[in-house]
Specification:
It is a single chain. The chain is an alpha/beta fold and about 260 residues long. It folds into two domains: about 5-95 and about 205-255, Rossmann fold, CATH 3.40.50; about 100-205, Rossmann fold. The protein has eleven helices and nine strands. The strands form two sheets. Strands 4-3-1-2-9 form a five-stranded parallel sheet, sandwiched between helices. Helix 1 (about 15-20) links the parallel strand 1 and strand 2. Bound molecules: D-glutamic acid. D-glutamic acid binds near residues 8 and 38.
């Protein structure tokens, strides 16, 4: 049985890469809801309904043995409800890597980049409250940043200009670390690093999420015994030619160094 990985689009492939590294013998379904992306500028109710429906399809119709919600926005909207609905299935949601960023040095100033919805939601507020005594945390909504990645535009002048404008007031500040609180952002990590400078440490939650999923599957004896390399089945909610193009982009991003 496969492990399902879900995102609003192609961003969760940054988490899928970690998952395959940690569990190379498992089979994965990667489902991107690009037809409804972006999620980050929708309402909580809209994102919740979309996430519940896609999770139902993956778990009940495609019989995935576990679900990784590889989208910070969908996690804040729906992971609690999903766990209540499917108490026996391992379900892991990614969340911004605030903890490691706050702990990597004494009294850091940390910029948390995420979608407007993730920044607005209770889940991130609670997470930031837990660590705010250790340094300074600056939440930064980045509406539109995921669209560059969704188009496969990772190195263009337009994405650089977007980031320069967005980060202008911080690039000369004393930012010690950046948290990539949206799974699309690791694909423009180099550009973010370029704009903020080499001294800034960049954190994302992909590896922690992958290790947590492995732990949860192991606990339930659900890890495969196969020693063959696993497979990845890319699926997307777009149709026709757009679907074909998106699946090609998924494969390219999956094979890309980030
Ligand atoms: N990849 C999603 C996340 O991690 C969000 C992108 C979107 O706005 O749909 O938050």
């Amino acid at each position: 049985m496969p492990i399902a990985v879900f995102d609003s689009g192609v961003g969760g492939i940054s988490v899928l890469k970690n998952l395959v590294e940690v569990m190379p013998h498992e089979d994965f379904i990667y489902y991107g809801d690009s037809a409804n992306a972006p999620y980050g500028t929708k309402t909580l109710e809209q994102v919740r309904a979309l996430t519940l429906e896609h999770a139902r399809q993956l778990l009940e119709e495609q019989h995935a043995k576990g679900l990784v919600v590889a989208c910070n926005t969908a996690t804040s909207a729906a992971v609690r409800i999903l766990r209540e609905k499917y108490p026996d299935i391992p379900i892991v949601g990614i969340e911004p890597a605030v903890k490691p960023a706050m702990l990597f040095m004494k009294n850091p100033t940390v910029l948390v980049m995420a979608t407007p919805m993730t920044i607005r939601e209770e889940k991130l507020k609670k997470l930031m409250d837990r660590y705010k005594s250790l340094g300074k945390i600056i939440p930064l909504p980045c509406p539109g940043l995921m669209n560059f990645v969704e188009r496969g535009d990772l190195y263009g002048d337009d994405v650089r200009q977007y980031l320069e404008e967005l980060l202008y007031s911080y690039s000369h500040d004393e930012i010690d670390a950046v948290v990539l609180g949206c799974t699309h952002y690791p694909f423009v990590r180099r550009m973010i690093q370029d704009v903020l400078g080499d001294k800034v440490r960049v954190f994302d939650g992909g590896n922690g999420t992958a290790r947590e999923m492995k732990r949860r599957l192991k606990e339930k004896n659900l890890l495969t015994e196969s020693m063959e390399a696993g497979t990845v089945d890319f699926q997307n909610s777009l149709t026709g030619e757009q679907h074909e193009a998106k699946i090609q982009l998924c494969k390219q991003l999956f094979n890309k160094e980030i």
